[in-house]
Amino acid sequence: DCEEDSPPGEEEEEQLLLHVTEGPTGTGGVHHPFIASLTPPHIYQFHQRNGFACVLLSDVLELVQFLFVVTFSTFLLCCVDYDVLFATRPLNHSHVPERAKVTLPDAVLPAPQCARRLRGSGWLLFLLVLAGAVWLCRLVTALRRLVGYWEIRSFYIRALGIPA
To answer: Transmembrane residues, as ranges (predicted)?
Structure first.
């Protein structure tokens, strides 16, 4: 019984049908039914990531997280004197007793000494340049993805009538 209700030729291949409302979609009044770069997986992913604002916030926070991890790791490698922190070398402060508790501020090197240690390590500079290049690639990828998600957002609002 179910096969009789379906239109002829439907058994051969299922196709995605999209209904687009009539009317202008942009400021120029040009009507385009569906943007060719938008595929159903992209539209589904946009839906699953909870819309444009969440996608934008997620991408920005991922970029900030990457910068934080690289910066904090560099700080820990170059700007902390671990011999002082783990008490294998005594502090040079005259006002601190010999068996006093060592804190992190006691083990942090001054900025000029930290910069000198950073400049003195060629492999670390190479890794920082490499991390900068990776971050720039991630930025470009995020911007390209956001342009596509903006198109999907417009498609949801204008063509499907689903508000943001």
So the answer is: 66-85, 123-143
Please check whether residue 131 lies inside any domain of the structure. Answer: yes
Task: Supply the mean pLDDT for the chain.
Answer: 77
Contact 137, 118 (CB under 8 A): no
Asked whether 67 and 139 are in contact (CB, 8 A), the reply is no
Q: Is 37 part of any domain?
A: no
Do residues 146 and 55 touch, judged by C-beta distance below 8 A?
A: yes
Instruction: Enumerate the H helices of 12-110 as residue ranges.
Output: 40-48, 52-78, 82-85, 104-107
User: Domain for residue 151, yes or no?
Assistant: yes
Number of domains, the chain = 1
Which residue is listed with tokens 């839906």? Answer: 47
Count of other CB atoms within 10 angstroms of residue 114: 18
Note whether residue 21 is domain-resident.
Answer: no
Domain span holding position 123: 43-87+105-160
Whole-number pLDDT of residue 27: 42
